[in-house]
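We treat protein structure as text, and this decision shapes the records that our systems exchange. Such a record has a labelled line for the sequence and another for the backbone structure tokens. The record that follows is passed on verbatim for readers who wish to inspect the format:
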Amino acid sequence: MRRLMLLRHAKTETDSPSGQDHDRRLDDRGRSDAGEIGHWISRNPPFPDLVLVSSAVRAQQTWNLVWETMKERAPSPGVETVGEIYGAEPAELLQIVRMASSSDPKRLMLVGHNPGMHELALMLTGHGDKAARKALEDNLPTSGLAVLDFDIDDWADVAFRRGTLALFVSPKLLRQTSKD
């Protein structure tokens, strides 16, 4: 069994000081949301063994804030910056996931961007929780987390429509649940 966690970066400023999209930073809500999703992850193991993070500033900041809220409860995962995640299409992201076969973590997290991350989540999902699937259909929002399980022994065997969507969560959904 392998678990893939797809985390979209948190909310960002509209423009970066450099004018480059790659350099956009998290805004106040983004910093708060990243901490909130990190707190949720820290209370809902299992935790990732390996985290692959886009080289974009906003993805790096998101992971750093998520980890800051997780580190007291979770073992330290391996973390790698993977420049190819930035702007990747679903097929490219799938190749990045399959490359994890070399280090063979049981649980892998990608921290990246839409539309690729959202499209990948949809394309990998073959079945799973109906409410989570319905919520994910619309969007993988900023700080949204899609968790997929695969009944495989090797990341090289991950394929479209073979995953089970175990859960989908976002800061907005967490706030709605806490009000109920």
The mean pLDDT is 94. Helices lie at 28-42, 57-70, 90-99, 116-124, 130-138, 171-179.
